[in-house]
User: Which sequence fits this backbone?
């Protein structure tokens, strides 16, 4: 309830516009943010499919209700093409007879192997021994550095710490005395193993609240919906059934569901990520709260974190600091 009340406070037209502008500023730097990483990871670059993504509306009311969003994106400089049913169906024949029109985002890309992409980016760091996999249980500010204690007994004293623990980040900031209203949007995923791809790009039947994304090996992933719940709460089978039932109304397949799982989207009440030095200790740099845009904004977030470490962060980054919520949780 506390998170929902803060979220409600962000639902005015003025606040929604301000938050959309903040996200658009980061999104406009998605590709430039990734470019230095991709230069060192050609395997990762090869996994990027640059053929856009689609919003497909299934009802006239849904398409009509989207016009304000289309206008806002146009004002924010987002590349988009409004499509009639015939144009959309020519791109994705599986949607034939199931759409009244939609929006193509031609500059969007998608990954057919998300895990492989992340592993390819990490490969140079793994090879030179820079990556240590462990679980942090304690974070503490000291005069001589930031003390880190791990569940396996390892201890570290760091000059700088980048706190990028996703949905678990607020548990660690609290140990530094900084309470941050980070919520969790739980998203549900199901996958089908198909004989051949049914889509060529991620396609969202908007009224259903999920994306249909083609993956490597003929897999089709249906992922989406939003469930506000705690990290410890179990998976809700009704959410899985909801997605499967609606997927089968769109996709002509009798294949069984091959895999299901639950993911956690770390979300601030204004849906804007937290990037920048901690108010309690500037040696700790925040990088979390990216909600549905974690991989999308990882590159530019990394560049901004690097600028913070060097003491060269741009002035506009102050708008993304957790300090924007200080009146709510002091």
Assistant:
């Amino acid at each position: 309830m506390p998170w929902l009340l803060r979220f409600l406070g962000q639902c005015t037209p003025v606040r929604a516009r301000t938050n959309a502008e903040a996200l658009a500023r980061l999104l406009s730097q998605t590709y430039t943010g990734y470019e230095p990483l991709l230069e060192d990871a050609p395997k990762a670059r090869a996994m990027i499919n640059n053929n856009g993504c689609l919003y497909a509306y299934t009802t006239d009311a849904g398409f009509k209700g989207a016009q304000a969003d289309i206008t806002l994106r146009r004002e924010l400089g987002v590349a988009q093409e409004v499509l009639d049913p015939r144009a959309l169906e020519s791109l994705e024949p599986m949607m034939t007879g199931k759409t009244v029109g939609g929006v193509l985002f031609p500059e969007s890309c998608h990954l057919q192997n998300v895990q492989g992409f992340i592993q390819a980016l990490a490969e140079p760091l793994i090879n030179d021994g820079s990556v240590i996999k462990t679980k942090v249980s304690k974070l503490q500010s000291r005069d001589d550095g930031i003390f880190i204690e791990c569940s396996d007994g390892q201890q570290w004293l760091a000059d700088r710490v980048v706190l990028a623990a996703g949905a678990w980040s607020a548990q660690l900031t609290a140990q530094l005395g900084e309470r941050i209203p980070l919520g969790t949007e739980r998203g549900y995923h199901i996958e089908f193993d198909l004989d051949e791809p049914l889509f060529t790009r991620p396609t969202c039947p908007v009224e259903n609240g999920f994306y249909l994304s083609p993956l490597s090996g003929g897999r089709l992933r249906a992922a989406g919906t939003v469930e506000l719940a705690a990290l410890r709460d179990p998976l809700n089978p009704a959410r899985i059934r909801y997605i499967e039932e609606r997927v089968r109304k769109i996709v002509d397949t009798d294949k069984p569901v091959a895999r299901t799982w639950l993911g956690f989207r770390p979300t601030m009440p204004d849906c804007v990520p937290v990037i920048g030095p901690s108010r309690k200790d500037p040696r700790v740099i925040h990088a979390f709260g990216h909600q549905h845009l974690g991989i999308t904004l990882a590159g530019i977030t990394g560049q901004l974190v690097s600028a913070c470490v060097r003491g060269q962060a741009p002035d506009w980054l102050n708008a993304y600091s957790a300090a924007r919520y200080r009146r709510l949780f002091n």
User: Anything to note?
Assistant: The two ends are 18 Å apart (CA to CA). The chain has three domains: 1-39+158-182+268-330, 52-108, 189-259. The first strand starts at residue 48 and ends at 49. DSSP finds twelve helices and 16 strands in the chain.
